[in-house]
Amino acid sequence: MSFLRSLSITTGIVSTLLYSASGSAADWDMPTPYPDKTFHTANIIEFANEVRTTTAGDINITVHSAGSLIKHPEIKNAVRSNSVAIGEFFLSRLSNENAAYGLDSLPFLATSYEEALDLWQAQKPIITELLAKQNLQPLFSVPWPPQGLYTKDEIQSVDDLRGLKFRAYNATLEQFASIAGASPTQVEAPDIAQAFSTGQVEAMITSPSTGANTKAWDFVNVYSPINAWVPKNIVVINKTVFDALNQSTQTALMSAAENAELRGWQMSMEETESKTTELEENGMKVIDPSEELITGLQAIGSQMQEAWNDSASSEAKSIIQIFKP
Ligand code: PCA
Question: How many whole angstroms from 125 Cα to the centroid of ligand 1?
């Protein structure tokens, strides 16, 4: 895909450089929110391996997946305070700090990988500045496959969502579900299966990746690829830690980050198809959303975008201007 070429241009041309050892080896614990089976986690493990190799063992990253070391809501602050040097989180979780972080989760703003990449290119310089104020530096960001709807029964229109106990993963999705008349509850990805099996929730919007990895067929029957947004994870490093590294270590880290970003986008695109097939192979009905359902969901999206316009920060608005001039 040609837009992936533009991604590799954005992230920089990866160069092979001679590494000069710093003489001081560092062991970094890296908390991540999602389970090992998740492609984001696999990608991060590859990133850690590459960093270990290209720094000749100077930087040794140990990945602690599924919120096992630090719970998802705490990961950003743990890196900020340097309890850990590096970590991953779901970018739009920070939308309560500044709407600039949440644009990739606004319904129907950017719905394809091409649009998601345009949005990321518009977001990146601005959120890099915002994160620097918290002593954080972005290393790479990777999208989930477009988000779809998981339900027990076929959904014909927004009305059918009314009253459903709905699993949410951020404030924007909670708002979307509430406007649709559903009852949202925040549940972290590693807890999804339990939340369904105990009846805490009965429907959700997430990627085919998270659906297949949580064996959604055990608790719902229908998957509708509404493809309403393409949200991203981000990996950040504590800026003081980064700035203290010698030049060749910094370069090795940034090269590995560029490779991870490119590889991650490719993995994500591949999973969109392969994980949807896995849902089908395990007995789920994959049903394209009806015209009526999409129109109803888009109306909710428009309503949210209008409300967003009234309250968004100047940084968020400038991203929109670059993304949609
Ligand atoms: N999976 C994660 C975030 C978005 C996605 O596709 C989750 O459901 O928590």
Answer: 24
